[in-house]
Each structure stands twice: as structure tokens, then as C-alpha cells.
TrEMBL record:
Keywords: Hydrolase. The keyword Transit peptide does not apply. This is Acyl-CoA thioesterase-1. It comes from the Bacteria. Pfam families: Lipase_GDSL_2. GO terms for molecular function: phosphatidylcholine lysophospholipase activity. The keyword Protein biosynthesis does not apply. It is an enzyme of class 3 (hydrolase). Its EC number is 3.1.1.5, 3.1.2.-.
């Protein structure tokens, strides 16, 4: 049984990513961190999820700002980056190196990581797609991390769940992402509270 003091401590997460985390063109309460936080609080979790998403960020941008975007006292990071690398056709090998460096830094700070994957757009070609899509499962396996394989699962082929650009989720789309992500995120939160007690 956890001590009552530990049980009462608020779990502090940081949603660290690009426009998909930042809530591009959405109201302040409609983004992924905000909707996740609301759902988890409704379920009785004492949790805060800070939004550290920056639209347009690549994994290199994320690596450059990681240390000051994730404050001391953070229990866990929802790490969602790589979409802009794929859209720009950046080297999957470099994307993986950048993500690996972020994971290593967070682990050194004893911050738990929930890795959120991305899939390459099909127009990049089969070779690029294969090289890019292998990044997240490989990192999750080598670092023993929970993996949510594809951030836009359930949204990507549904125009009614997207903004007019056909790339970003609308508020309803984010709600679908939240519903699909919650079971594994809940398990992740269980490991954080165990580790902290």
C-alpha cells in the first residue's frame, strides 16, 4: 500500500511534441494534453499535464529545447515528435538519433517516458516509409518504453475529424485520439506511481 502522502501527490506530466501536441488551431481546452488531463481527472486521477507542444517542431528542435521545456519535478513525459521530420523527408536515421538523445536525457533525470509514434506519409516512398516506421518500435524495445504506435490512429482517414488542411485533428479528432490512448496511458501512470513509492 502506498503511503497516504505519496498517494495524494499530484502526478505531473509534460506533453512534449509538435502541432499535434500543441493543439494547432484549437481552443485552449481542446488540445491533446488538456483533453487527456480532463478525462483522467474525471476518472479520479490527481494529474496535471503541461502542454509543451510547439507547432512545426522537428526532433532536432525538440532536442534543442528539451531541458528547459521539461521542468524539474516532472514525473513523466508524453514524447510525440517526428511528424515534421517525415513531412520534410529528413533522414530517419537522424530522427532516431534525436529521439534517442531525448530519451537518454529524460532517463538520466529519472523522468518516465510514454513514447508516441508516427508513421511516414505514403508519398515518401516505400524505402523511406520502412526506415521511418521502424524507429518507434525499435526505440521502445531498446529502452523498454511503453509505445502508442500511431498518434493519429482513428483520425487520419476521417475528414470529419480533421481540420480543413487534412493533416491536423479538430477537437472531435483529438477526443478520438484521447479515447484510444487512454488505456495504455493509464497503465503508464500506474508504473509512475509504483516507481515513486
Amino acid at each position: 500500500m502506498p503511503a497516504s502522502g505519496a498517494a495524494a501527490a499530484t502526478v505531473k506530466l509534460v506533453g512534449f511534441g509538435d502541432s499535434l501536441m500543441a493543439g494547432y488551431q484549437l481552443a485552449p481546452d481542446e488540445g491533446l494534453p488538456q483533453q487527456l488531463q480532463a478525462k483522467l481527472r474525471d476518472a479520479g486521477q490527481d494529474i496535471e499535464i503541461a502542454n509543451a507542444g510547439v507547432s512545426g517542431d522537428t526532433t532536432a528542435d525538440g532536442l534543442a529545447r528539451l531541458d528547459w521545456s521539461v521542468p524539474d519535478g516532472t514525473d513523466g513525459v508524453i514524447l510525440e515528435l517526428g511528424a515534421n521530420d517525415a513531412l520534410r523527408g529528413l533522414s530517419p536515421e537522424q530522427t532516431e538519433k534525436n529521439l534517442e538523445a531525448m530519451i537518454t536525457r529524460l532517463k538520466e533525470r529519472r523522468i518516465a517516458i510514454y513514447l508516441v509514434g508516427m508513421l511516414a506519409p505514403p508519398n515518401m516512398g516505400a524505402d523511406y516509409e520502412k526506415r521511418f516506421n521502424e524507429i518507434y518500435p525499435r526505440l521502445a524495445k531498446s529502452h523498454d518504453l511503453p509505445l502508442y504506435p500511431f498518434v493519429l490512429d482513428g483520425v487520419v482517414t476521417h475528414a470529419a475529424l480533421q481540420l480543413s488542411d487534412g493533416m491536423h485533428p479538430n477537437a472531435k479528432g483529438v477526443a478520438v485520439m484521447v479515447e484510444r490512448m487512454l488505456p495504455s496511458l493509464d497503465k503508464f501512470l500506474g508504473t509512475i506511481s509504483k516507481e515513486s513509492n
